[in-house]
Description:
- Two copies of one chain form a homodimer.
- Chain A is 44% helix and 23% strand.
- Chain A contains twelve helices and ten strands.
- A seven-stranded antiparallel β-sheet of chain A has the order 1-2-3-4-5-6-9. The first copy, chain A, has a two-stranded antiparallel ribbon with strand order 7-8.
- Chain A is globular.
- The interface between A and B is medium-sized, with 31 and 31 residues.
Amino acid sequence: RRAEMASSVAGKDEVDERCQTFMAAPITPIQNLKENIRDTGSRMELLIMETQAEVCRALERADQGAKFTVDRWERAEGGGGVSCVLQDGKVFEKAGVNVSVVHGYLSEESIQQMKSRGKNLKVKDGKLPFCAMGVSSVIHPKNPHVPTIHFNYRYFEIEEADGTKQWWFGGGTDLTPTYLNQEDVVHFHQTLKEACDKHSPAFYPKFKKWCDDYFFIKHRGERRGVGGIFFDDLDSPSKEELFQFVQSCAKAVVPCYIPIVMKHKNDAFTPEEKQWQQLRRGRYVEFNLVYDRGTKFGLATPGSRIESILMSLPLTARWEYNHVPPPKSREAEILKILKDPKDWVH
Amino acid sequence: RRAEMASSVAGKDEVDERCQTFMAAPITPIQNLKENIRDTGSRMELLIMETQAEVCRALERADQGAKFTVDRWERAEGGGGVSCVLQDGKVFEKAGVNVSVVHGYLSEESIQQMKSRGKNLKVKDGKLPFCAMGVSSVIHPKNPHVPTIHFNYRYFEIEEADGTKQWWFGGGTDLTPTYLNQEDVVHFHQTLKEACDKHSPAFYPKFKKWCDDYFFIKHRGERRGVGGIFFDDLDSPSKEELFQFVQSCAKAVVPCYIPIVMKHKNDAFTPEEKQWQQLRRGRYVEFNLVYDRGTKFGLATPGSRIESILMSLPLTARWEYNHVPPPKSREAEILKILKDPKDWVH
């Protein structure tokens, strides 16, 4: 019994140590995290805080000294978050890495949205207590030869009227280049595939396709970028296996992206290339405001922190009427891929 | 009878003359317009084509020689339009004036949207033939002291399963300044009020409030601009009276806006003022992509011309994380008005 206690105390010390590395204190008091350290909620909160810190430090190093500003905020209705933003750095135009741990009651709009996704929710007096936590990030670099990355890993719990709990994981990592660099895209997908393959050979192909389908700008007939992985509503095989999988994905963010940043951050570019990047940023805005599920959930959740939700928007964007790139140009090349996504790793 | 015929022929010659002044040929063949010249649809099509031409010519004069490019397009599913765009002029960053005359079947999404607005529609086999026509325009000037204007006047007809026709008018004109100029806003609202008062003293107060309510960016808790008038689903007192009213509104566009352009187009401005304009353009994009009914209808209508729908987006926009203007600044002054709209004319 003494050995057991010792190990438990060691586990608790480890929580303190991990929290030291975070950008700010976690949302849930550390004492509570320690007491419930076996709950998926506590472990996920530590994972998303850790991921935020790892990504922010890696981006700061890549930007040679730029620093993230850190806002720790609370939500009147329950929970809060930590928003880290680096704006107008040397390498990054706008980089946001946001953690939120939010609880309360689902809005009617969110309940409808979940039902339309096939969830069967037993509502009592129209109320559904929920807890949602996640890390989400969009990194917009200055150089048009460095792609934009987005990632998001989240865990959701809903307590139904009869006391049963529904839970699921969602997430993904995807890349949005302004110009196609085959080698970069293969590296990106390969790194994600390796993270997936550790858990199931079925994951990468399934979540790669889901990503292509999800990041579709329907009114343009094109994808937002060259994809990656995306999944939602995952609740099998088991909570533990999925947590491990999500952890592998979160750990893959830095190795799938930072090498591409380092390779291209000093590439020369023309004003025309910068302008094409700005037009593509406009499409990014279109996807996020018209289709993105996370943005819609955020805008529909009362008391949500708008600045943290819309942190994903680029610093600047551009819309030209009827812009069509010349045939066989590098701009036409990437558009073709966005209209007709391909397999990058076999 | 000969006198009657003469008058009818004169009416037909008049159609030819009016069409001469348009930016392009109307969507409906001129012969058909002549044959059905007493139908509201024909008269409305001539009015929107005429409004487009009046506004484009006035803007070209204000821009000292810049020219609109004119795209006349057809829609495979029925109808078409004329899109006029002036991009990167001396005075205007992006000015779009679009006419569309579209017919076909309503999409399921549009039917649901109309039902949610309280329309009782008798559907047969899930199909509802409709005809929608309108002129819509957004003018984004370069100088931050010249406000953005938007206007839209439209006529809608739906044929129900039992052959009865529902019809209504919608529209409005509203102003979005980057900085508050009291005199300009009063001139703008006064001109619209005069157009309304010719038809009913109830119109201006009702449609002014509707405008403040409609152009609300809910997630920001602020309006898009300083308002104007807005109305939708109008089907009383009578088709004729409403057509006359809409005509007065359309004729008021040039006198309510062009004097403000002429007054400020050569005003000096600082880079900081330009940057504040770009941030406000970001909010404009948020409203149009997240809330605007016309944009949503367009994006949901199969075969619609995306470039004409998204012509309303500015050439450039900007999103800074957590931007808050200093207290008592001119930026804070306009924000206060956007959060708490006031009466401009009594």
